[in-house]
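Design a sequence for this backbone.
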């Protein structure tokens, strides 16, 4: 036995009205569900078609321009890797320099010598002989002792030569000697002397300078 859905709920409306209203409501609801389902399937089919077409276009775009763009990208990347940075490396100026260690003396290095010249010997001749034997230039820094019979050229008066007789004490002695082929003008001694009576005289040595 079939029961009317409306009467089963305890309603007392006329049967034709209840049946007609329920059927219309059920039919209208069924049509809405069918329309929504149809729209959903239609939208999915359109999305699939658009997705497939866009995927094909994307593949065609990649295939069509992949060779040229890929070559340009590879060349550009190779240029970047081969490029060297310009300028000094960072911290190169702050690196400590290794110390300079001299393991042997140079042939032209300046050496210090102390010469002792005996009485009666010429100071000029002794220094020149020492330089000629070693083929070295000699620079006289100082000297002490006594000399006799000195001939000097004084710079105050041009061409004035003074001959001093007696014994004098050396206050200062300086000069240089260069062996040949240096000219004779490169060799010379300058001396300052103190006399027995307290007088001081000086000039360029001319001739001999004898120790006493």
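Sequence:
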């Amino acid at each position: 036995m079939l029961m009317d859905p409306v009467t089963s709920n305890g309603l007392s409306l006329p049967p034709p009205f209840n049946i007609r209203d329920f059927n219309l409501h059920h039919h209208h609801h069924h049509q809405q569900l069918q329309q929504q389902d149809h729209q959903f399937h239609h939208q999915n089919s359109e999305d699939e078609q658009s997705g497939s077409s866009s995927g094909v276009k994307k593949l065609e775009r990649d295939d069509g321009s992949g060779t040229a763009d890929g070559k340009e990208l590879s060349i550009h990347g190779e240029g970047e890797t081969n490029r060297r940075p310009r300028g000094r490396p960072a911290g190169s100026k702050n690196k400590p320099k290794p110390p300079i260690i001299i393991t042997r003396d140079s042939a032209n290095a300046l050496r210090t010598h102390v010469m002792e010249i005996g009485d009666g010997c010429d100071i000029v001749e002794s220094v020149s002989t020492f330089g000629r034997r070693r083929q070295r230039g000699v620079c006289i820094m100082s000297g002490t002792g006594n000399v006799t019979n000195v001939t000097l050229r004084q710079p105050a008066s041009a061409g004035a030569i003074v001959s001093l007789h007696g014994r004098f004490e050396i206050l200062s002695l300086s000069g240089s000697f260069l062996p040949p082929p240096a000219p004779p003008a490169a060799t010379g001694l300058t001396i300052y002397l103190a006399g027995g009576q307290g007088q001081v005289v000086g000039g360029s040595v001319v001739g001999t300078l004898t120790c006493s």
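Confidence is low (pLDDT under 50) at residues 1-10, 16-27, 51-79.
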